[in-house]
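Convert to structure. Protein one:
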Amino acid sequence: MSGILLGLGQLCQPIALLGLLGGVVIGLIVGSLPGLNDSITMAVLIPITFGMEPQVAICLLVGIYCASACGGSVPSILLKIPGTASATVTAYDGYPMTQKGKSGEALGLAISSSTFGGLTSAIVLLFLSPFLAKQALKFGPPEYFMLAVLGMSTVIGMAGDNIVKNVLAMAVGLIFSCIGMSPQTGLARFTFGQVSLMDGISLIPMLIGLFGITSILEMIEGIKKNPKVEEFKESVKENYQRVKVALPDRKMAKRLLPIWIQSSFIGNIIGIIPGAGMIMAIFMAYDQASRRRPNLEFGTGVPEGIAAPEAANNAVVASSMVPLLSLGVPGNSTSSLFLGALTIQGLRTGPSLFKDTPEMAYMIILGFIVANIIMLPLSLFYCNFLASAVLRLKREILSGVVLTLCVTGAFAVSNNIFNIYIMVFFGFIGYTFNKYKIPQSSLILASILGSMMESNWTQSMVFANGSLSVFVTRPLSLGLLILSIIFIGMPIVKRMKAKKAAA
């Protein structure tokens, strides 16, 4: 309770609340702009937070993360153009409702569902993170090594039919994590004579490249393929002439409550698992909702078809912070950006965050709760008065602004021009990965966990005099190993069952 009070004290500072409010507004705007999302925005803004107070910087990012998932539903419903990848499924029933003249109702459903899912995930974060952090105090090098292995295993287990591409992305990430000084020998590895690589690849320029530069390249490509920007603007203008957002009434809320609870549960579970991501959550939620209500024709404009994915995608948001705050393992690519932001502010994730700086840990958690509360009225205001103008912004101007922020941000990390080269390099990698549908999140997770695995492996071997038995004789390490085997074995078992069914 004392930690919650400390966190509340930090959050209630006017400057922190202002940062949270600004973050929600920015999140709604960037979420509704096709081509931009929370990851891109946070990547280019993190370097700008250098000079900010920690409370302001973190609250700003929390607000962006919460609101962007909700903002993505606006163009998805009105124009069948998802503002973010997480809003893809929302268009299945959102756009048909728009065609029926019910766009205001559809937006109201999206906003209320996002708020419900976001609040449930924030509550999960509040209760689960401190508990896991206490358990993590019992961890030694063997446990942390197996925790990193578990993080990698979950990616394989949740990959579905995309196992090869996920393994490839993780292999590339592990190679990048080896760049720099060896923790065993102290010798330089894969630096190619570059002094700037002696400490390894800086996380922030890498993320700016993967998200920011990649988005610019895709924006440019989109402009060339679809130059009819004026038609797009007119479409926005026409659709918005008849929009008046209306939240669900009591009868509709009662009807949707089981779907909200079910979808939020799915989103929270998926969010906690490292590497799973929003996309999996929204498709699972939509599928389960259609199974729950087989009498409804999903895809024709039913409210449940909007409620399920929107509740699920926002439920992933705060729950993805659970493994990061408590264990130091990012739940997805966006939460990995928080790792960079917290590092910049001199904060360490994991048990030490709750032990050494409980006021900051609980400020982050409570920030997610408050952000989702204020998101509801701000979303209504935004959809009714601002979204039309935002959607008609020129993509050429946006790409120029993003490029400027990317270059400035990458250089500002250490005032080193070499970081710009890193940014550009990873920008082309991200663009290539997207072209071949190779997940970037697996690369990011592996590059972060790789160094964690190596250092804890070395310490474990020193501790156990080179004996591998240290990983099975310690209960926590053994438990994590068993979970890793289960996750790796899941796709194998599924394939065997599929072959038997086919035979």
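Protein two, convert as well:
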Amino acid sequence: MAQVLPPEIDVEIRARPYTESESSLARCDAAVFVLGANEPEKQLAALPHADLWRALYRAAKRVDDKRVLTARLPNKRHTLVSVAIAPADSTAFSRLSLAARITREILQPGVGLLRVYARGMDEVIARQWQEAIASAVLAAAAPMPQRKSKPEPECSLRRLEISGPGSFPVARLLAIAQGNHLARWLATLPPNELDCTAYRRALKALAKREGWQYRFYDEAELRRLGAGAFLAVTRANAHRGAGIVRLTFRPAQPKHEAKLALVGKGICFDTGGINLKPHKSMYRMHGDMQGSAVAAGTLLTLSRCDVPFRIDCWLALTENEIGPGAYRPQEVVRACNGVTIQVVHSDAEGRMVLADTLALASREKPTFLLDFATLTGTCVAALTERYSGAFTNRPELHDSLQAAGRDSGERVWCFPMDEDFDQDLESPIADVLQCALEGSGDHILAARFLGRFVQAGVPWVHIDLAASERKGGLAHVPTDMTGFGVRYATHLLAGGELIKKLRKRS
């Protein structure tokens, strides 16, 4: 039986001052030095084996590639060392991207102990660089599903030592890495292994392990709740087992009554339904469940950070299949909040399952509602696969949403949500069109559609995961499935300040 839940990332992190000497470096397998951009040759001269680094730097200058220098030291262990010249002005994204390059060079087979130094910069910036490198190392060290007859060797790293004064957020760093790993792992599993039933069982096992509450709303219960939009999509799902999983984290010591609701789109495979996708568009549609994977990964991270507020995580699990029972254009269905929907395109199934899931989640009046979904191609067209789109019914949150993207390195861009966009969703026979016939601005129309299922007064943010998949990875993540959103949501929410502000306003 295939392993559906990922193993823990087996890397110990220690953070304390370590000596920068030839003898100290001879006791580890690999090391990274990050140097400030000011007078790099002078800083290189202060490193152990200074002559080696100055020679490499001068040679690199001649080819204009002096950012990362890598060599094996002339000691018995042949310690592998990378020296990186940090740019004077860096963003979180650029730090993570450079960290990924360093990691590719330094995490070679046989490296079991890696030490990271930062010098020539103030303590805050040094910690930022060390956190970026540690994040890239953990992302690369996380094992991913392999089904090859001869599996590729897994990363041999077992200990990461961070050198420097002051505290280092080891627990938070590991929590983010594990949450991101969960999202990437689930999104990578082939669809014959991660169908709705297997996914549900894995989430139940995860809940038991982490001490969360678990509840499953099966199709019969959803029928009693009137979730006609969700059930329209499930009609052709041959595997059955579709439904909504609810995971609940309750903090050991809650500081207030605030509640966070996470919602994720979990389409385990998307054929497009009656409006069948062409083969190239269908090829990687096992990944159409990434919204649910990111929501679950975010729950894992925030609960391990022991945030002081309750979290309900709602995951909409089904497949969008083709068959005699498949829902069709022009059908009219009723969601559980009473809103009637005229179906336009069966491949807009994500907004159908999210409609009922958002309605159920918002019924409980959460302090903040955040959903993740691989929802529209137009968002990718607008932003490429480097950013994701953010939409909210609280425009005053725009600055906070984009700041969290800049600070985390998982960048988002806020799109407009003006009411006049609803003109394109007017139906002659129902309350709302599922989507417009033309694709222009579909990411905005999808968000306007979803907003109809969020109860008035509930602050809501929708993340259209344009950056969920990118060939070669993104920032510090080396895999095509990026797990984008876990790191972002942690920066946005883990401190609790946003939740507190929203609670005061409510």
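The radius of gyration is 24 Å. Residues 175-505 form a domain with the Aminopeptidase fold (CATH 3.40.630.10).
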